[in-house]
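Hi R.,

As promised on Friday, here is the backbone we talked about, encoded as structure tokens. Could you run it through your design pipeline when you get a chance and send me back a sequence?
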């Protein structure tokens, strides 16, 4: 067990849904027998003692080749679940995915009610993405 003063964070993706399976988005080898919901993933992380969760608004099947639109509704559900389950209305949840421009940050906050955002690939193309002067 880690000492309390050591912070622990986790990053997860949204789990695939039955609709994803029906639309053929999960590949031919994936079996949709016992799906774990995003709520269950979040509860397990909180039970394990994480201090902050970053949730990517896409499934693991949506990678560089098959990227679809980000599911900010799923991220919002994860944030609501974390705050309700933990009993902490300020439990920190960061959103990942769909942050391409500075203007996307506020859109993400509005749609997900997250505490913060994370961007990765867009930062490679535009390291100033979080600069207010870089509004697109």
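Update: got your reply. Pasting your designed sequence below so it's all in one thread:
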């Amino acid at each position: 067990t880690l000492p309390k003063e050591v912070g622990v964070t986790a990053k997860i993706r949204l789990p695939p849904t039955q609709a994803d399976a029906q639309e053929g988005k999960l590949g031919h080898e994936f079996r949709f027998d016992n799906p774990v919901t995003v709520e269950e993933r979040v509860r397990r992380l909180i039970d394990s003692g994480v201090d902050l969760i970053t949730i990517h608004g896409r499934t693991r099947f949506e990678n560089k080749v098959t990227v679809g639109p980000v599911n900010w509704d799923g991220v919002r559900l994860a944030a609501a679940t974390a705050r309700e389950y933990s009993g902490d209305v300020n439990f920190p949840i960061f959103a990942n995915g769909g942050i391409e421009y500075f203007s996307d940050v506020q859109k993400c906050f509005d749609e997900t009610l997250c505490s913060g955002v994370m961007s990765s690939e867009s930062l490679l193309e535009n390291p100033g993405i979080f600069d207010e002067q870089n509004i697109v």
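One thing I noticed while checking it: The first strand starts at residue 9 and ends at 13.

Thanks again,
M.
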